[in-house]
Amino acid sequence: MDTVWARDPTEGFILGRISELLVEGAEVIPINPKFQRRVLPFSDIFKAQEDDKDKDYDDNCEMVFLNEGSLLNNIRIRYYQNKIYTYVANILIAVNPYKDIPQLYSAPTIKNYQGKSLGQMPPHVFAVADKAFRDMKVLKQSQSIIVSGESGAGKTESTKHLLKYLCVNWGAQAGPIEQKILDANPVLEAFGNAKTTRNNNSSRFGKFMEVHFDKSLHVAGGHISHYLLEKSRICSPQGDERSYHIFYMMMAGAPESLRKQLGLTKPDDYNYLKTGCTRYFTSSANEKKLSAGQKSADHAKSGPLRDILLDDVEDFTTLDGALSRLGLSDADRLQIYTTVAAVLHLGNIEFEDNPEDTRGGCRVSPSKAKALDIASSLLGIDATELRQALESRVMQSSRGGIKGTVIMVPLKVYEANNARDALAKAIYSNLFDYIVNRINQSIPFQASSSYYIGVLDIAGFEFFTVNSFEQFCINYCNEKLQQFFNEVILKFEQELYRREGLSVPEVSFVDNQDCIDLIETKNHGILNILDEESKLPKPAYNHFTSEIHKHWANEYRIALPRSSKLKSHRSLRDDEGFLIRHFAGAVCYQTKQFLDKNNDALHASLEGIVQDSKNKLIQTLFATSNAQKGKLTFISVGNKFKTQLLELMEKLRKNGTNFIRCIKPNNKMIDGQFDGALSLMQLKCLGMTSVLELMEHGYPSRAPFADLYNMYKDYLPPELKKLEPKIFCEAMLHSLKLRDKDFKFGVSRVFFRPGKFAEFDKIMKSDPENLKAIVADVKKFLVKSRWLKAQFCALTVIKLKNKIIYRKRALIVVQKTVRGYLTRKKYGPRIKVLSKIKNLNGNLKKMEAIAGQLKKEKESTTNDINKLKNEIVATMDKIKKDGKIQPSAIDALYAQIVAKVDNQMDSLQKKLLAQKNAEEQARLRKIQEEMEREKKRKEEEERRLKEEEENRRKKAEMEAKRKLEEEQRRKQEEADRREAERLQAEQAKEALDERRYQERLEQERQDHELALRLAQESNGQIEESPPMIRKSEAVKNQQAALAKGKYDLSKWKYSELRDTINTSCDIELLEACRHEFHRRLKVYHAWKAKNRKRTIMDENERAPRSVMESAARTPKLQQKAPILDNNSQRYFRIPFVRPGGDNSKRGWWYAHFDGQYVARQIELHPEKPPILLVAGKDDMQMCELSLEETGLTRKRGAEILENEFNKEWEKHGGGKYVRPADRKQ
Fold first, then answer.
1. Where are the beta strands (DSSP E) in 709-867?
2. Lowest pLDDT segment from 426-435, 462-471, 810-819, 1015-1024
3. 153 is in an annotated binding site
């Protein structure tokens, strides 16, 4: 049977073949014997291309079958061929190769892609950058490139290559600005990137980098917006993760003199670094430059970390040079390095309980006094003041005593540790803001900017065993970006198709607005509840968590930690966390540090001493006070990020949008390994499978008629300027010789199919020579089309003339016919009688002949005959001359003449009887023989007439039966209509419930895959939740059990059902098997239609289209009483035209229904051999619909007699048919 892609938990999809059709789906036998056969629902099975399975496609929309399995296979094949880029329409998919691919980003490659449209060159990040530039140029609109994907997918590298392409091609005239924009990347990576378990160079902040262009479309400057730096990483990297690169770069790559000046040694010596990975990234050559004093114990034991992009020794030199080119002097750079070192020394300050303090305060440990001195020296703060600010905080009384009295409140050890960490985070965070601001100052754009291209690189969806406030904010951002993607690519796209009148099938997708509302809604959103909790006198994370569960108790998107599939999460109490079902999977958040991380303000005493610092950089960093002045007035981190995110989304909506979806091929970060299940999960989360489904019928490129017309207007001659924009565009596209299926005209714009970007860009290019050439083609096309229209008009006039002549002749024929009828009506009786009288002359001649034979009385007999002749002549004269004679009188005269002739004839015959006895006997014998022959002929004629009458009676009975059935249906229609109105609401509700159920099933699958990945990374365990049951599941199960009746066929194979139908004599069993057999056939054919080839449609049509459409329109209401007899034998014939065939060459489709289903089927078509199909042998090619569903009984003249069907069946070689009821036991 069919070759298919079957879902697999490890490979994503594997190739197999369907072997059986079962109740729950189909049994698939994998082609690779290492995989076991499996039973899957049809939703997990997709058609595969049998030939060229290893062929790869630049654009996934070019594949024969557009489905998840083909998409994953194409990306896998290309990955192993070092083709890491591919398209889905105009969206680029980039797979991280984890290795350097020669010449992929070289200068010649950059040059090759300049000015080339998507599709002309192999897929590449440069092609997207060039498209964004050309869209900006042609559409006069700023562009955004959204680079998305999870950590380790290669977003940062893609961003760097995008900026490099833009600056190299259009930044040459910008002078140093071009280099400064490129220099921003190593600086931001040094201060904002870190090693995680999933990515050696993970961006721990989001950035939107704008490259601005002047009126000449040359680079004029840039701007960087950054979002949500992960400050907790400064103080507490864990396990195999590191803090920010800058700390390690300074210890490994800074000159020895600078390290001594700043008191830097090795990572093991700093509390903020030693809890995580303490090894450096170095190459073999640079590893030798490190002294023993720079290496940590782990580094000395295990050796350095390796990465093709990272080298802490060399990267410091790169960083220092980049900062210098960005305009920072030696003193500025020294101040930055000093501040970074101060953060490390600040972390080495430790506290212990102060036995001399009766209020339970703490003090700096005497052994860490040196760290305090170094930190205070580097920060330009008095050591005593720093000690005091860390050990206590200042409060002003609002009542009791003198208002405004300053009170020193000693801090406990944990409070002092928190204050120290808060200061370190504030210093580093403000330093990062300062560096970004200096970069922006070095690449100004305000004066000369016209448009810009922005590249968004923000942390991808994150999920760990322990997820805190940072992951919550990052995933909130990704929910907003996913919604934006759904709106731009799926929702708005489909709405546009509907407005423009394009018949594109609707593609469903999961709307995540409910998840966003859960987080950001004003009344009870999580961020709002968090801010309200922070304003309480004694805020507590337990109360905050309980409030969330209280307000969202009935929301599906949020759940208790114990509902997590990861076993470690189920040990959390209900008030210690919550689980959110994101678009990419369920994530369990622990809320213990939410309150602290949401408030990044320093207490007043710490804020005061840093503002009074002698270090000018520290003063600058804290020039704007951010001290906590009151719980009711503070601006939370979450609220600030929400505002930034809203501004970013508004900016993205105003710009043109391009998407790059980055894929991480494996979790080990090694090259040459492709994890199918992991990649498939990312593709689905990024919406690529939904886009692929939409693009099967969609049109990703479009242009308004008016815009195209205005672009060409200045080059048009006067006669073409008069054309309407739509007519001009039609002429232009036809002149380019594009096929009709490659584009569609909407109401206000023209749309292009995927893969037709080259033609689209050819039109959109605005250089004068190209425009003039296209205008010339348009003129040629218009001349040709007008000539064709003139020819058509001339032919139409000739046809009209011929029609007029034909009608004139037809009118004369009508006049002639009417006049003849009136004449015949008036003179008909006379002519008829005269004709009869003339016929009597024959009798007279016979009498004369007889008289001539008489031997006696010959003369008298001759006289009597002459007298009779005279009477006949007199009668004819009377009839002719008397105009008022009545038909009755004419008939009477005729009767008299006939009587006289008969009497005379009898008399003559009697006279001849004696003498001609012998001759008469011979003649009588001949007459007898003639009568016998006539009798036989009449009997045959009567038999034929009786047969025709019987056929007419049967057909009348069939028509009466059809009318009776139609009458019964009409009687039921009113009741059915009322029932339909009642059921419509129920069905709509059931459809909505079913959609939600399917969405939740998909969510459950993603949650399971996410939990499985976490369990593999953390060596944990997962626990499956009980399967979801719909509210109506019990009722449906009960109905299904009743429907099964006497026989349970759910375990029967497809082949067993077919064999039973062919051999069984048990009528009840046979009928049950037929119903189940055809039900499975319908499911199979529905799946096959959904997964059909895009190149040809309906190639295996099993019944005329009118029959299939009737089935689609047949109401699914349950009949109160059966209208059709399940055991009747009925035969039908209707016209049939094959799809894509000539409508003038019509064939015939015959069907014999044994009960409710087709038993025999014939297709007769001109110029093709007849097709005869029999149930039980050719079921896959036969109509699977029931007689009621086909609507054939409602088609007048469709039903035929059994002998008519059998005549065609036997004529074309069909064998004898035996009904199941006639089989012998």
1. 743-745, 749-752
2. 1015-1024
3. yes
